[in-house]
Amino acid sequence: MNKPLLLSTGHSACPHDCPSTCALDVEILEGGTVGRLRGAADNDYTAGVICAKVARYAERIHHPNRLLKPLQRVGEKGGGAWREIGWDDALDLIAERFLAAEVAHGPEAVWPYYYAGTMGLVQRDGIHRLRHAKRYSGQFDSICTNMAWGGWFVGAGAMRGADPREIAKSDCVVIWGTNAVATQVNVMTHAARARKERGAKIVVVDIYDNATMRQADLALKLRPGTDAALACALMHVAFRDGTADRAYLARYTDDPAGLETHLATRTPEWAAKITGLSTEEIEAFAALIGRTPRSYFRLGYGFTRQRNGAAAMHAAMSVPAVYGHWQYEGGGAFHSNSDIFGLDKSEIMGVALCDPTVRHLDQSRIGAVLTGDAEALSEGPPVTAMLIQNTNPANVCPDQRLVKQGLMRADLFVAVHEQFMTDTAKLADLVIPATMFLEHDDIYRGGGQNHITLGPKLVEPPAGVRSNHFVVEELAKRLGVADRPGFGKSEIALIDAMLKTSGEPGGFDALKAGRWIDKQPDFETAHFLKGFGWPDGKFRFRPDWAGSLAPNRPPESLGLQGPHARLPALPDHVALLESSDAAHPYRLATSPARQFLNSTFAETSGSRQREGGPALMIHPEDAAREGVEDGSVVVVGNARGEVRLEAKLTETVKPGVLVHEGLWANSDFLDGEGINVLTGADPVAPFGGAAFHDNRVWLRA
Ligand SMILES: Nc1nc2c(c(=O)[nH]1)N[C@H]1C(S)=C(S)[C@@H](COP(=O)(O)OP(=O)(O)OC[C@H]3O[C@@H](n4cnc5c(=O)[nH]c(N)nc54)[C@H](O)[C@@H]3O)O[C@H]1N2
Ligand SMILES: Nc1nc2c(c(=O)[nH]1)N[C@H]1C(S)=C(S)[C@@H](COP(=O)(O)OP(=O)(O)OC[C@H]3O[C@@H](n4cnc5c(=O)[nH]c(N)nc54)[C@H](O)[C@@H]3O)O[C@H]1N2
Ligand code: SF4
Ligand SMILES: [Mo]
């Protein structure tokens, strides 16, 4: 067969839940199909580089298993039998069931459940407009950023940091708790440039030799959940050796003297015992950053997915404040730029329609919510009807057995709007097919970088699929709220209005012509040289864990959840971990797979082949003790359940630590249950969230 002719190159943004939000060039082929995707070379963050899984997007968008028609369940829930129905009937059915739920229990019995399958502001956030208009239950988005953002914010008082492109101008790039090669490849682009052009050193702090650690000049493989101990020792050495920047500390931080006193006992020897690193490794790291003003700390999410993760983030970001790295270009720290974009989403989200007394339910505790836990329901009515968009909770949420039990409830109506027959869609009453990003208009902003980027519709969707925006608008008509503010507009009209009310007078057309807008604040603002985000302008070594106006603070209706009182007054290691014990001698982390994006791409053969299959990485010493052979089937379990999968013997993990890279579909596992059977949904300090890498387990051959 001849290769279809290249018609044009379209411009877009990657919609996936990845900090990089790459600017894309998309080959549009004859017949309206898609060819290769590439990173935009003229975008100075993307810099022409994207990950392999998105470069192969043609495989996903033209996948033979894509959902193309609405399907209604026949027979048992999860039984796998469906009948095709028309779109009008499907939408009528959702509206009918939502109205019935409302009549029986009030509007809070309906729970629109969403997350970040697409990061587009219109297609992702429009569901809020519907829920506000109808006073349906709200959602506390706790699953991903909670501990990381909480830990950062209590220190800096704002969610921004040193320009991510400055990594290229750094002399020491510290990549801490993020497997950037796999999860945000562009960090490596800029770090590699710094190494090539400036001889910069790359330090990686992680719990196993992942692809990023293999690129490190200094590779620090510590025990899970011990990062704060490492951070404290680094700061101890700074005060001990005179590499702390006392002038900076006096001007820019709240209590340097208190910190110094507190750290007196946090020696490298103390930290070595906790972290499992050697004192030489800790001293070498401290010496490197002590002599390198341009040390850039790129802090990821991974180390915050521990029950002490917020405290660990705060401790790690305190390091550049002690050494004064913040003052230099190519120095300082970065986690997320979520504060810089200034986009006013209130029309898209229907903020004017919001009733603040409506309850919020914790996304991570969907299992408890759906199985009727009164506390998880805020003592309110049961949830009896759901629309699930952009997320796959039966696979990605913790405490999977409880999640599935909830979704299977006979008196619960679940509509899932999806691109594929996911683990969640399989348990639904109704499945409706969704467009992909190249088939609808949307706008994106990059949490891990600095651009607002347009993703206009580039190709026609298959005949039977509809966008999230369409579903929200059509349901609004059927539920009697289509005349409320914000409804009845096209995606382009919403984007145009949002840009114009957000200080971008050129609106949609100007963005289309320019492709992206660079929102990076100036050097002094980004480096907090005019002060940190608190009234006194000082970085807080003494965080106010409960009182700050953190972006991750739960809505009032949820109350202040989470054991915030147990977090330390100053940076410290806190033993808030699911530590191993005699019955559970191992610690399991469920780290991201390079070829997947959460549960997405686990359906494409290119990604599946490269990942192999669900496997458990085990150190040979542990394997020998348990009588486990490479390639054999093992059982790994804890109080929440057990999972069978293949053993992979490797010295990339430490003895006592197991790593599973995912997320594979539940149906890819031998017993049809995924790795999240083992993860817990107990709320993590300070305000809730899921500690996906903090699990004690046993192992059996
Ligand atoms: N290829 C790919 N890319 C992705 C994703 C994916 O699933 N696959 N997911 C996307 C999403 S939603 C997000 S939020 C980001 C997350 O991206 P990251 O910021 O990279 O965070 P994590 O993926 O949770 O984990 C990163 C690393 O932290 C390690 N880790 C676990 N516990 C500890 C610890 O206690 N200390 C330290 N130092 N390290 C620890 C993990 O083993 C892993 O190697 O990536 C996004 N990009
Ligand atoms: N064990 C373990 N579990 C984890 C994690 C971990 O590290 N370990 N990471 C956690 C993290 S950080 C996160 S953020 C969550 C993410 O969990 P999810 O938000 O569920 O993750 P995704 O797989 O990115 O997206 C879910 C679905 O959105 C669909 N989708 C994409 N675009 C659209 C669209 O335009 N419309 C509609 N209707 N659907 C669309 C995709 O087909 C996909 O099935 O998972 C969490 N779960
Ligand atoms: S998944 Fe991340 S690295 Fe890959 S193209 Fe999308 S934004 Fe870029
Ligand atoms: Mo995430």
Ligand inventory reads: ligand MGD, iron/sulfur cluster, molybdenum atom
Q: Which CATH class of the largest domain?
A: Alpha Beta
Strand order of the largest sheet: 5-4-16-15-14-6
How many helix segments? 24
What is the share of helical residues?
25-40%
Question: The biggest beta sheet, please?
Answer: 6 strands, mixed
- Report how far apart the termini are: 49 Å
CATH topology grouping of the largest domain: Rossmann fold
Total strand count, please?
25
What is the mean pLDDT? 96
Helix and strand content put the structural class at: alpha/beta
Domain 4Fe-4S Mo/W bis-MGD-type: 7-65
Family: Belongs to the prokaryotic molybdopterin-containing oxidoreductase family.
Keywords: Iron, Iron-sulfur, Metal-binding
InterPro entries: Asp_de-COase-like_dom_sf, MoPterin_dinucl-bd_dom, Mopterin_OxRdtase, Mopterin_OxRdtase_4Fe-4S_dom, Prok_Mopterin_Oxidored, YoaE_C
